[in-house]
Recover the amino acids of this structure.
């Protein structure tokens, strides 16, 4: 009995691994055609200034709908795009799309806000990154002050290349935000070595802010540190009024999360901008 149980378990494990492999291959294959086939789009999540209760910016989040695979989450396909190198084309597409959209809103006379784009560590290892962004800004006509780049801490970022890339991006006038702050390997090292403008507190610290003392201490400390360093602070993943009130009390100025808005299509952002103006 036990022996056959073990072999059934082994078969199941093998089957599951096969399934994972198949899905990965399918994603890899379909992803290569996603841009050309127009399968990618961006949704936008408002960033709110607690001083004024107004939307001051947007985070651009990629979405992928494929006929065969359905909707695939970026948490699943971005790592595969990074491994296969497709991330360079996808990253460029998102940047151009975000800058263009923001410029169109500004040209339509709507209130000026910033767009924040997630940039993969692979893109920071590419020496052409800042040149590419300079080109996109020139082509779209968006002023660099309305573009923010979100980077995450990661071991595989080449520190020297990243430092060079960040320095030229800063010279362009683009802002740099450190995403998912507190979850990575070298949060403090990044703050010390890179010209960061903004700290985005990871949503895992916001969850349970009320009930977990350790989260409250960490969040308070991060906000204080950001203030001492002259950095803007954004709390990510704010879902309840309770979390919002605690963050306000701690002196956090910017928030983002389902409490205000989920990531939405550009038409909905347009409506919000019309109401703002
Ligand atoms: P991220 O940059 O940290 O983005 C925040 C994620 O949290 C988004 O998930 C967003 O939808 C979600 N979120 C926002 N507010 C709340 C909230 O109140 N509660 C909860 N539970 N979640 C909230 P999403 O869109 O699935 O993206 C996941 C990750 O994929 C992003 O994390 C980012 O690392 C990556 N990603 C998304 N778009 C891009 C892109 O264009 N380029 C690159 N390189 N990465 C991207
Ligand atoms: Mg982000
Ligand atoms: Mg984040
Ligand atoms: Mg994240």
């Amino acid at each position: 009995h036990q022996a056959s149980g073990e072999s059934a378990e082994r078969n199941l494990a093998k089957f599951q691994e096969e399934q994972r492999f198949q899905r990965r291959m399918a994603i890899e294959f379909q992803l290569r055609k996603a841009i050309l086939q127009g399968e990618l789009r961006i949704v936008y999540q408002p960033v709110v200034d607690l001083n004024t209760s107004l939307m001051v910016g947007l985070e651009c989040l990629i979405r992928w709908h494929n006929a065969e695979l359905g909707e695939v989450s970026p948490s699943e396909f971005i790592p595969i795009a990074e491994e296969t190198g497709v991330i360079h084309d996808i990253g460029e597409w998102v940047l151009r799309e975000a800058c263009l959209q923001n410029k169109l809103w500004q040209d339509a006379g709507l209130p000026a806000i910033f767009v924040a784009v997630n940039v993969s560590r692979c893109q920071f290892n590419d020496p052409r990154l800042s040149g590419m962004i300079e080109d996109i800004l020139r082509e779209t006509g968006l002023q660099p002050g309305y573009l923010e780049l979100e980077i995450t801490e990661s071991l595989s970022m080449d520190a020297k290349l990243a430092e060079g890339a960040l320095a030229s991006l800063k010279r362009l006038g683009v802002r740099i935000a450190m995403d998912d702050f507190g979850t990575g390997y070298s949060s403090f090292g990044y703050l010390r070595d890179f010209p960061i403008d903004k700290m985005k507190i990871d949503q895992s610290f916001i969850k349970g802010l009320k009930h977990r003392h350790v989260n409250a201490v960490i969040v308070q400390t991060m906000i204080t540190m950001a203030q001492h360093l002259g950095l803007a602070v954004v709390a990510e993943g704010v879902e309840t009024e309770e979390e919002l009130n605690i963050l306000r009390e701690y002196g956090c100025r910017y928030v983002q999360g389902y409490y205000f808005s989920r990531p939405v299509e550009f038409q909905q952002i347009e409506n919000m901008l019309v109401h703002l103006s």
Summary: Residues 2-34 form the longest helix (33 residues). The chain has a mean pLDDT of 94. The chain has eleven helices and nine strands.
